[in-house]
Design a protein that fits this description.
By secondary structure, this protein is α+β, with helices and mostly antiparallel strands. It is built from 13 helices and 22 strands. Strand 1 and strand 2 form a beta hairpin. It starts with 5 loop residues before the first strand and ends in a 22-residue tail after the last helix.
């Protein structure tokens, strides 16, 4: 196969040539010849015979991962040259999502650091001219929150899962397809999914749920062919991924200036408060690292070397870029017991003016009320929340 068949240009920052289609990077597809920074090739890695144990060997700028099924399985090799090259075994090529999420994106993260960008685990939209970034641990409810904000208030979409941030606080699009669940679809009733796709969602959601991924992480510590298992499962039942425009009406943006950062969490009761820049940096890096917890990343990361810089140096540079980017931005932590982040964000941005008198009255106690209680307080001003009192937990939020 022509290795130049699939070409991707991430806004002139990173260029990729791949023998495997990468649906997550469809927004960056290029039809022009390019000099790649990263090349993905098909090939046989390791010996053809089965093995008793998996192994990772790092030597002379090369990482080789071998599993039990031999070279016809999910073995891969990474060569840290110019360009960086990834060679993937036959089983991996039938599951491009695994190739991208478990191999390509972790490398892109640190390649982008060397180019002065952070690939941050965060969603970004512009609402009424205000740039809003949301970050959370995986499977918290970020996808559902973003879809509700866009559906109820319109706006411009930049990312749901990962986004690029530079030291000056500029945010560049990274609009990968959204990984959704049946619960997420019910939160966006005007979506355009066909009946067949909606019927398939429960099974897809279950296989790609937090519980199953947690089991996969635990299996990663055992002597099992984890990449082969992951690739086989996702080849048979691919993750439910859809473009944001399949779910809500919105504009697609390319670049915007960072303004508001919301760190959303679950908790027993609603809490809202400002955080310091250092606290925000810690949370953003922790959330980003959490997104890469699926094996073999914990083993692979220790051996990454980009332009002569190892993992420790890359992480220090990533932190410095993020500290510079946050500057004096508005940094808010929201803990909600009932998935009410969208309502609170709308209130904080002043998008629902009818709620402002009640919010100002609550300011001294920094909103220890739940959104449902807040809604009952403000109904007299015509500001009742449009969110149901009980929203099902979103099952997936875009990670493997």
């Amino acid at each position: 196969m022509n290795e130049s068949r699939h070409r991707y240009d991430i806004d002139g920052i990173i260029r990729i040539r791949s023998a495997v289609r990468l649906p997550e990077l469809e927004f960056a597809r290029s039809h022009r010849p390019l000099k790649p920074d990263l090349v993905i090739e098909r090939g046989l890695v390791g010996g053809p015979l089965p093995r008793a144990r998996r192994s990772l060997v790092s030597e002379a700028g090369r990482i080789t991962w071998r599993e039990h099924l031999g070279s016809l399985g999910a073995n891969f090799r990474i060569e840290f040259g110019e360009p960086i090259r990834i060679t993937v075994g036959p089983l991996l090529t039938v599951s491009p999502h695994v190739v991208y999420t478990n191999l390509v994106e972790p490398l892109l993260r640190f390649m982008l650091v060397r180019r002065g960008r952070v690939l941050l685990h965060a969603a970004t939209v512009v609402l009424d001219g205000q740039t809003v970034m949301l970050s959370a641990e995986t499977d918290t409810g970020k996808t559902t929150t973003i879809l509700r904000l866009l559906q109820e208030h319109g706006g411009t979409f930049y990312s749901d899962d990962m986004v690029l941030v530079d030291p000056n606080g500029w945010v560049t699009r990274y609009p990968k397809p959204l990984t959704i669940s049946a619960h997420t679809v019910r939160a966006t009733p005007r979506n355009r999914l066909s009946l067949g796709k909606r019927l398939a969602l429960p099974l897809q959601s279950r296989l790609h749920s937090r519980g199953v991924r947690g089991a996969g992480k635990r299996m990663g510590s055992l002597n099992l062919p984890i990449m082969s298992l992951n690739a086989a499962i996702q080849a048979v039942v691919p993750p439910p991924k859809y473009a944001v425009t399949d779910l809500v009406d919105c504009e697609m943006g390319r670049r915007t200036r960072l303004e508001h950062v919301f760190l959303i969490e679950r908790g027993a009761q609603t809490e809202i408060g400002q955080v310091t820049g250092s606290e925000a940096v810690e949370a953003l890096i922790r959330n980003t690292e959490d997104a890469y917890g699926f094996p073999p990343y914990p083993i692979l990361a220790r051996h990454i070397c980009i332009d002569g810089m190892g993992l420790a140096g890359l992480r220090r540079r990533e932190r410095a870029i993020l500290e510079s980017a946050l500057g004096d931005r508005d940094l808010t932590r929201i803990v909600a017991a009932d998935y009410g982040w969208a309502d609170i964000i709308v209130q904080r941005l002043g998008l629902d003016e009818a709620l402002q008198p009640a919010l100002e009255a609550l300011a001294p106690v920094e909103r220890s009320l739940t959104p449902v209680q807040l809604s009952s307080l403000t109904e007299g001003a015509g500001g009742a929340s449009s969110r149901p009192e009980s929203e099902p937990e979103p099952v997936a939020s875009g990670r493997p």
